Amino acid sequence: RKEVEQDPGPFNVPEGATVAFNCTYSNSASQSFFWYRQDCRKEPKLLMSVYSSGNEDGRFTAQLNRASQYISLLIRDSKLSDSATYLCVVNPTGNQFYFGTGTSLTVIP
Amino acid sequence: NAGVTQTPKFQVLKTGQSMTLQCAQDMNHNSMYWYRQDPGMGLRLIYYSASEGTTDKGEVPNGYNVSRLNKREFSLRLESAAPSQTSVYFCASSYSRGRGGEYFGAGTRLSVL
How buried is residue B59: exposed, middle or buried, by Cβ count under 10 Å (0-12/13-18/19+)? Predict the structure, then answer.
């Protein structure tokens, strides 16, 4: 079983829509969780950490569900500039980070 | 503030040639990582260095070697390149043990013919 699994999409949504992605992880002892975005032919960039209590940064909300072992990312009022691939990352223990294969989002005018 | 700097950005090798990818970070991070990214596979860890003086294998270490030269620099060496090593390589760094996530360099696009 993969450490981290994501629906690859693609998700095609109109501007202004709300879209949500989920990501499941296999190691119940995992402690740290993150969302990254990656633009085409660019490096991944840290979008936000995911805390147990959930966290919000502007239009972006990340949540953790330990019982079901998934994290989610909600994007409200989608902008054209949100078009990218969103990577879910889990750090079980130690120094290794496990990346999902990413979910592709295209925001349509 | 440069963050993580990787060189070169592009490289074409012939099978059997060797090369070293360089990576340096100026964020005073303890941990550094080398990943490769292939279509449909996501990012896979090749090697990492938890701190200066230590290195450990990741998920796909075969065919690669690394050197943690000092706290700032972490290099990746391909001794005898193979077509299967055609990929995009990313160096990353983090404070340590999952704190604050990782910060990535711009990547090296490597083709092995």
Answer: middle
**B56 vs A contacts (CB less than 8 Å):** 95
Q: Residues A16-47: pLDDT tens digits?
A: 999 999 999 999 988 889 999 999 989 999 99
pLDDT tens across B34-70, in order? 999 998 788 999 999 988 889 999 989 999 999 998 9
Beta bridge partners of B4: B25
User: Token pair of A34, please?
Assistant: 């993150």
Which residue in the block uniquely carries the two structure tokens 């209590």? Answer: A53
CB contact under 8 A, A49 and B97: no
Q: Say yes or no for a CB contact (<8 Å) between A32 and B107.
A: no
Q: Which residue of A has its CA nearest to B32?
A: A95
Nearest to A96 among B48, B90, B96 (CB): B48
Per-residue DSSP letters for chain B? ---EEEE-SEEEE-TT--EEEEEEE-S--SEEEEEEEETTTEEEEEEEESSTT--EE-S--TTEEEEE-SSSBEEEEESS--GGG-EEEEEEEESSTTTT--EE---EEEEE-
| B47 vs B54: CA distance, rounded Å | 11
Amino acid making up residue A106: T
Closest-CA distance of chain B to residue A41, Å: 9
